[in-house]
Amino acid sequence: MPLSPRLHQFARIGLPVLAVIAFALGCLGYAAHFQHASEVPGVSHIVYVTLRLFVFEYDGDHNPVWQLNVARFLAAGLTTVGAFAVGLSILRDSWHAFRLDRARDHVVVCGAGAKGELAALDCLQTGDTVVVVDQIADAPSISKLRQAGALFVHGDITDGEALRKAQVGRARMVMAVAGSDETNVTVAAHARLLAAATRRTEPLLCFTHVVDPELRGLIERERAFVLGACSIRLVDAYAAAARRFITDHPLETGMTGPDDPRQVHLVVLGLGKLGRALVVQAIRVGHYANLRKLRITVVDKDAELRCNQMRWVWPLLDEVCDLRAVHGGFDDPKVRQSLREEAKEPAVRTVAICLDDDARAVTQALRIRDLLTPMPPVQMAVRLGHTELAELVAGSTSETPGLGARVVVLDTHAQALRRADLLDSPLDMQARAVHEDYLRHQLAKGPDPTNKMLVPWSELTPAAQDANRQQADHIDVKLRAIGCRTTTVLPPSPVACSDEEVELLAKMEHARWAADKVLQGYRYGPVRDNVVRTHPDLLPWESLTELVREKDREPVRNIGALLRPVGLYVERAT
Fold first, then answer.
1. Strand ranges inside 119-162, DSSP E
2. Which of 156, 175, 202, 270 is the most exposed place for a label (fewest CB within 10 A)?
3. Distance (Å, rounded) from C-alpha 293 to C-alpha 295?
4. Considering the entire predicted model, what is its pTM?
5. 336-340 long-range CB contacts below 8 Å, 24 or more apart?
6. Mean pLDDT value of segment 383-398
7. Rounded CA gap, 34 and 29, in Å?
8. Rounded CA gap, 559 and 386, in Å?
């Protein structure tokens, strides 16, 4: 076991100080001892005999002066402690090498930054053997992870040799969570080759963190890294954090149903990686009972540029949401006035503060809360990295009478890569059920060689799997639209939706599907073409044929069946 932080600090600072004290006392003691000798030795001799105290050799009588007496015992003790520490270090390194050599079915975490540290600790808490690979051996996270029981391989994670030392070929799971997409993709490529060179009964799971949507799309379209010995799954911690927030804190909270005239409005302060992910996830699920487009206001010093960049990537973005840019920071009076004017408009509003600086985020949250206090109630979210600060902010501002805003905490991207969400998560189980339901209905109509979706879940492209996850994400939104909710208790009788409710939910499903297609780069075309990305069904509901509308009604009627794999049932909310 490694030294505790206090012992490590003592060994690094205290032992050298004690050694200097022992040496000084030894020199003083020998100087006093030799001053009565017939021939007084020189300074070099005094230094020499003092140094011999550290190897248990003493040149003096049985009644030395007190300085020399203290020095010889202190020096001998320091030497003993040093020898013990060296032996313990050798033993620890040997045990580390032994465990690493025998590692099987373990988890390899590549990158010891914030994401890697929390991912490794999460896996350790579930009992996994964890090997961390990083080129910074003295990083604070490494000491913390070693304390928790993780093994460590020092080396460049893009170097196949470092991954080979981590026994990637025999691992069960690899998590490439460095700060660079290119680095993570390189790790995945090495893991693929190492897995192929090892006899495996199960494929190696490689979760590769990729944020850049263009790079993700390229990998997914080209089916890169397809190999039976290694299953590479692209993950985005920012998207995971956004998905969890919108699931736990629905944007339409407070909406009264299909007749509610208010628009759901999301205000995002800071359009960095997390803010952008929140915007994209909101566009995917923001299709509600009143069928009004989601309104998104982006407040950023480069808001117009960033919004136009999204429009360049997704040319039809304005057809699926109402995107507005407010240029500047919240300290700008013009920005505050713009937000104050927007807040007067009737809406179901959420304000998300996605700044990287915790202190600045808290300051802005409190200012915005005070600004919106006279307005109708607003849900606020603040991205905070420090748990203690997050608890303080949420505890001091939540549900306070008289306040116009309720503050909740938005997870950072580093907190989002949880093992339970990566392996057989409830969302994935629901997504599989969605795909199996689709397969059942389509195959009942007869085989269709042109439909690449008519394959088992494991053979779907990552983009197709994520499309099913998006549909599963929207189930709770649909249920809330008709006054229903999920429960873990089997109701006495199944909930039956009326024809009007089925039609409403089908319209919501079509709007959701169209937004997801737009975010995949599709546009309307007379024929479906996955190369040039056109689809004939990218039309308003009123322009669809009955055959196409029925495709949206089928999953709505089967919502109960889609929830059963995760132990959930539908009930009417009271």
1. 130-134, 151-154
2. 202
3. 6
4. 0.77
5. 336/371, 339/267, 339/297, 339/299, 339/368, 339/371, 339/372, 340/371
6. 59
7. 9
8. 38
Q: Which amino acid is at 436?
A: E
Residues whose CB is less than 8 angstroms from the CB of residue 152 and which lie 6 or more positions away in sequence, other chains included: 96, 131, 132, 133, 134, 137, 142, 145, 146
Q: Which residues is 378 bridged to in the sheet? A: 405
Residue 298, beta-bridge partner list:
268, 325
Provide the pairing of β-strand 484-487 with 569-572. antiparallel
Phi then psi dihedrals of residue 204, to 5 deg: -75, 130
First-to-final CA distance of the chain: 55
Per-residue CA distances from 43 to 19, 58, 542 (Å): 19, 17, 101
The HSE-up count of residue 447 (CA atoms within 13 Å, CB side) is 2
- Does 390 have pLDDT greater than 60? no
| Mean predicted confidence (pLDDT) in 137-157 | 81
Determine the pLDDT at residue 481: 92
Which pLDDT score, from 0 to 100, does residue 279 have? 94
CB 133 within 8 A of CB 166: yes
Q: What is the pLDDT of residues 433-474, one digit of tens each?
A: 888 888 887 778 777 777 777 888 877 877 788 888 888 889
The beta-strand segments (E) located in 459-568 are 484-487, 523-524, 534-535
| Paired tokens of 377 | 């109630």
Residue 543 φ/ψ, nearest 5 degrees: -95, 0
Contact 393, 409 (CB under 8 A): yes
Domains of the chain by range and CATH?
A: 5-96 (1.10.287), 103-235 (3.40.50.720), 251-410 (3.40.50.720), 426-572 (1.10.490)
Cα–Cα distances (Å) from 435 to 217, 401, 472, in that order, read: 21, 45, 10
**C-alpha distances out from residue 112 to 145, 208, 465, Å:** 9, 14, 29
